[in-house]
Design a protein that fits this description.
single chain, mainly alpha, globular, SspI
C-alpha cells in the first residue's frame, strides 16, 4: 500500500488531543527544515476548514510579519 506524504502526516496527528497537536506544532516551528512539509499539510487543513474572515486574519498576520 502506497500512501502519500500528506496522508502519512494526517495519520500521524489523527486522534491526538488539542495539547498534543499544539505540542507537535510548537516543536516543529523553527525546527529542522524537514518538518516544513508537515506544517504545510497542517496549515492546508486549517485553511480549507476556516471561514473567510479567519483566512483574512491569517493573511494579515503573515503580511504583518514578513520583512
Amino acid at each position: 500500500m502506497n500512501i502519500t506524504l500528506r496522508q502519512a502526516i494526517v495519520q500521524r496527528v489523527q486522534n491526538k488531543s488539542n495539547d498534543e497537536l499544539q505540542e507537535i506544532i510548537a516543536d516543529s516551528i523553527g525546527g529542522e527544515e524537514r518538518v516544513l512539509p508537515g506544517l504545510g499539510v497542517l496549515f492546508e487543513i486549517i485553511w480549507q476548514h476556516s471561514e473567510a474572515n479567519i483566512q483574512n486574519e491569517l493573511v494579515e498576520t503573515l503580511k504583518g510579519h514578513l520583512p
